[in-house]
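Exercise: predict the fold of this chain.
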Amino acid sequence: MLTIQYTWSSPCSEATQFSLPPLTCELPHRRRLRHCIIGLPEDAQMAIDRLHLLRYAERFEWTHALDFPPHGIVLDGRPGEVLRYLHRDIRSNPSANE
């Protein structure tokens, strides 16, 4: 919690001095949001690069590429968490369809 004390005094008279009550500003509780990028290595890197250009996340914050085991993976969430993802087709040659 952050507390700020304001005091105002008049240069004309000390009789008008008063003190405002402290201003209390509670900082929001930070929640964790986990991002998963699943795709071909070059597509995953392109997504990371775009997020970097948007100043959303630095490139070094991402883990190294992890290979999927032969039987896939299981994502284990916590109570109250949900899984959302976005599937978007990536055009290999953007100028070919224009």
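Check your answer against the key: The CA atoms of residues 5 and 22 lie 5 Å apart.
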